[in-house]
């Protein structure tokens, strides 16, 4: 059978060019899997940028993919990068990696079954965990599913099973943490980074990942760029009310002129609006701030908007349609890393109200909640 082969040239920084890592991915797709197209990208880098996703087409139940990268990184293969669906994470290493795709009640199940040395360390931990806890976990989950189907979870039996499930999960987590402490693995470091990514900007959700990072991984694999990214994430997570905001960073005007953003907000009561033309919720929340701006701008309220964009035409169209009364800076294709600096690598927006001294007053996007804080900061009775 002739495989459908796609070669992608990915690097950590530019996503183009040749790298030191060459990984050959082989996929087998079982009969009964309806989907014949999947997508691959480096984890946490693609978001809604179609250009960063590589489409893989299945032919005769197989696909192959060659990835070149600067260093070993975490990638994901997903059913549909727009609609979501099942996915699998894997490490790009100088080796061959095997992915199995089988039918599932909700689409397709994606499993990494073999890979390079670091991938194999993780797979071995998973196999050992399954041998120790798998049978009991499957039994509890099967009973819970049955009770849920019959609307019996909120019964003495259901509550007892939920407690047993939580207790077993805690045992598995403790066992895995001890195993990773005894068997350092790069996959563990990058998997923690993925967990932090989906903690969004909630410091409490991110705390378990940060604690494990500092306990197990902070001094391991010292040259890997994940340490820099995690440090930025941790710094960004500190952007909470009562904490100082950044003294300065850079973005660009719509015409591409570099701007020192700090010059626009230092010494002023400022609402920082991080948005994007492709983020409908960001735009909706931003438009709700227009009445606040018009009401308090003459009294000193300042707005600094920064858009994360992949397409400048879409940006200009959004500015025209939404009729913002303030200009907007742009971080085009993450040139300045503004979202990463604010711990927002996932791609959603962020609002920060800061006072004249640079202290964060609020991270809310609720205009009603913001108004009294703005009035107090502007010394309006």
From TrEMBL:
Subcellular location: Cell envelope
Domain Thioredoxin: 239-379
GO biological process entries: cytochrome complex assembly
A molecular function (GO) term: peroxidase activity
Coiled coil regions, renumbered to chain: none
Name of protein: Glutathione peroxidase, house-cleaning role in reducing lipid peroxides
This protein's UniProt keywords: Cytochrome c-type biogenesis, Disulfide bond, Oxidoreductase, Peroxidase, Redox-active center
Cellular component per GO, a single term: cell envelope
InterPro entries: AhpC/TSA, DUF4369, Thioredoxin-like_sf, Thioredoxin_domain, Thioredoxin_ResA/DsbE_sf
Gene3D superfamilies: Glutaredoxin
């Amino acid at each position: 059978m002739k495989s459908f082969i796609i070669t992608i040239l990915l690097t950590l920084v530019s996503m183009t060019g040749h790298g030191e890592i060459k990984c050959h991915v082989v996929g087998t797709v079982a009969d009964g899997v309806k989907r014949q197209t999947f997508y691959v990208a480096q984890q946490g880098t693609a978001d809604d940028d179609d250009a960063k996703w590589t489409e893989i087409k299945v032919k005769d139940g197989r696909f192959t993919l060659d990835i070149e990268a600067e260093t070993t990184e975490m990638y994901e293969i997903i059913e549909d990068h727009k609609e979501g669906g099942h996915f699998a994470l894997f490490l790009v290493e100088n080796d061959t990696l095997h992915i199995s795709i089988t039918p599932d009640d909700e689409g397709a199940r994606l499993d990494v079954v073999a890979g390079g040395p670091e991938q194999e360390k993780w797979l071995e931990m998973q196999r050992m965990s399954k041998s120790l806890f798998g049978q009991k976990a499957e039994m509890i989950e099967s009973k819970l599913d049955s009770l849920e189907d019959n609307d019996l979870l909120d019964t003495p039996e259901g509550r007892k099973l939920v407690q047993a499930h939580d207790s077993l999960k805690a045992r598995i987590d403790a066992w895995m943490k001890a195993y990773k402490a005894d068997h350092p693995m790069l996959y563990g470091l990058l998997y923690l980074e993925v967990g932090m990514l989906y903690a969004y900007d909630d410091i409490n959700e991110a705390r378990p990942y940060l604690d494990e990072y500092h306990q197990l991984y902070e001094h391991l694999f010292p040259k890997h760029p994940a340490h820099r990214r995690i440090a930025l994430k941790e710094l960004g997570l500190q952007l909470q009310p009562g904490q100082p905001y950044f003294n300065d960073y850079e973005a660009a005007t719509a015409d591409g002129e570099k701007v020192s953003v700090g010059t626009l907000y230092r010494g002023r009561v400022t609402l920082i609006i991080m948005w994007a033309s492709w983020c409908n919720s960001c735009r909706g929340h931003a438009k709700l701030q227009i009445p606040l701006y018009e009401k308090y701008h003459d009294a000193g309220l300042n707005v600094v908007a920064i858009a994360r964009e992949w397409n400048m035409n879409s940006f200009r169209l959004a500015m025209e349609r939404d009729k913002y009364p303030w200009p907007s800076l742009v971080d085009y294709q993450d040139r300045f890393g503004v979202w990463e600096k604010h711990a927002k690598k996932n791609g959603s927006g962020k609002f920060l109200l800061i006072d004249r001294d640079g202290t964060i007053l609020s991270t809310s996007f609720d205009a009603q909640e913001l108004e009294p804080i703005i009035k107090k900061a502007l010394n309006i009775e």
